[in-house]
Amino acid sequence: MPRWPEDSRERLAGAAVSLFVERGFAATTVEQIATAAGVTPRTFFRHFRDKEEVLFAEEDELLPLLLDAIATLEPPFRAEELMRHALGVLADTMEPDRTRLRVRHAIIKTDVALAGRELAKQAAWQPQIAAAIAARGYTEADAELLAAIGFALYRTSFVAWLEEDEPEPLRERVHHALPSVRTVMDLVIPV
User: Fold this and answer.
1) Would you list the DSSP string of 147-169?
2) Which residues contact 86 (CB under 8 A, 6 or more apart)?
3) pLDDT, tens digit, for every residue of 89-126?
4) Phi and psi for 54 in degrees, rounded to 5?
5) CATH number for the domain that contains residue 111
6) Does pTM top 0.90 for this prediction?
7) CA 113 to CA 187: how far, in whole Å?
8) Could you tell me if residue 36 is inside a domain?
9) Does residue 167 belong to any structural domain of this protein?
10) Tens digit of each residue's pLDDT (9 = 90 or more) over 6-32
């Protein structure tokens, strides 16, 4: 028989988010989260290294999905088609979780350290994404640029999707944003 309930991780995550919303992220302790979930703080640390990780742990499942989407698109394709495909797969994965993601986003916006951690986690992915793009035949420099553009485009689309009350589907928002990169690059600021 296990020493702690099998659903401890889910109960901890649920309790943490509820407390973050109710009390604020900074005011919530690991002990409070564990108590609300009906487990000990030690059990909390078996599942999460710290309370911040409760908000970011599921993101680790997204990187392999994105890498696979980049690796499996059938050639020939342009860079925009590769980006459309990979970001579309990511968007389809996120779409059903919009309610939970909106709550998570609201919590992250309240704490500068959380916002930094979110950006740092994404930045850690960028070299892997660039390597996957390079493996498809792009130069390293072009792959790095495409990865950076992809992150910026997705982040902008994702945040707008979360903050609107009745947004268009995330995949459509990302697809509409792709041509805007070219438009923005062509802007001329008058003298």
Assistant:
1) HHHHHHHHHHHHHHHHHSSSPPP
2) 66, 69, 70, 73, 150
3) 999 999 999 999 999 999 999 999 999 998 898 889 99
4) -55, -35
5) 1.10.357.10
6) no
7) 34
8) yes
9) yes
10) 788 999 999 999 999 999 999 999 999
